[in-house]
Amino acid sequence: MLTRINSGLGKFSKAEEKIARYILNHAELIPNMTTKELAEKAEVSEASVIRFSKSIGIGSFKAFKIALAQELAVADKEYISDFSIVHKKDSPYDLFQKVVHVNKRAIELLASSLDKKELERAVNVLKEARRVLFFGVGGSAIAAVDGLYKFTKLGFQTEFNHDFHYMLSLIPYLSEKDVFVAISMSGKTKDVMELVRFAKKKGATVIAITNINKSPLYKQADIRLATPTVEKDFRSGSITSRMTQLTVIDTLYISLFNTIGKHVLEQYQEAREEVVKLRR
User: Fold this and answer.
1) 6 pLDDT exceeds 90?
2) This prediction's pTM
3) How confident is the model at residue 268 (pLDDT cuts 50, 70, 90)?
4) How are beta strands 157-159 and 178-184 bridged, if at all?
5) What residues contact residue 88 under an 8 Å CB cut-off, 6+ apart?
6) Which long-range contacts (CB under 8 A, 24 or more apart) does 257-265 make?
C-alpha cells in the first residue's frame, strides 16, 4: 500500500497528494483514524479522503485502513526507536500515538514468541526457588528492578544490583535450589553472560528473558522466555524491548501470585496498612 501511494505522488490531485504525504509520514496512525480525523490532519475534505481510497484501487477508507494495518503488522519498521525519528518533526501527541502503537504491537508479537511450555517451566521452578537473582544492564535493568520489587512482595529472597561486582559476590552462595533470571535484549551483554556462566557452574537454574534470536544467552539458558525482536542494537533507547520484558516479569509475578498468593495475603495486608499510615 505505501509503495503504491509513494509511486503515485505525481499523479494525485492536490488534495489527494496532501492525504498521501500525511499517510506516508504517519502510516502507523492511520488504522485508528476516522475519515474525519484524517481529513482534518491532511487539511482536506472528507470527500477527498474517500476519493483518495478509490484512486489507489481500494473501495472504501475502511478497507484501506484494514489493508494498511495488515501491511504494517508484517513490515520491519521502527517508527520511534531508531534514529530516523530526527527526520520527522512530529508533535508530542503524534509521538504519543506512535509510542502507543509500537508498544501495543510489541506486546502482540510477544504472544507469538513466548513458548507456553517454557513459561510453565519457569513458573514451576520459581515457585520452588530458595533464592531468586535478577540481572540486566542498561534498559534491561529496569525489568530486573521490577522483578526485584514484585518477587520481594511475594516473600522471595530476591536480589538485584546495578553493580556487577556486587552481583558476582552473590553467585558463590547459589545452589541448585536457586534461580538466576538474566535479562538482555541482545543476549550478548558481557556482564550478563559472565554471571550466567558462574551461576550455571554453581548449579542454579538460569531463566533468560531475551530476544528469540539464538543468541549466546538464549543458548546457555536452562529456560528461555523469548521476546520478539522489535528493536535493533543501535537505537535511540530501549522502548518496545523494555515493554516486552516488563510484560514477561508481570506474567511471572501474576502466575506465582495465582499459585501462592493465599499464603502471603496477610503480609500483603500488613504492608498495605503501613503504607496507608504514611499518607497525609
Assistant:
1) no
2) 0.70
3) confident
4) unpaired
5) 25
6) 257/154, 259/123, 259/127, 260/127, 260/154, 261/154, 263/155, 264/153, 264/154, 264/155
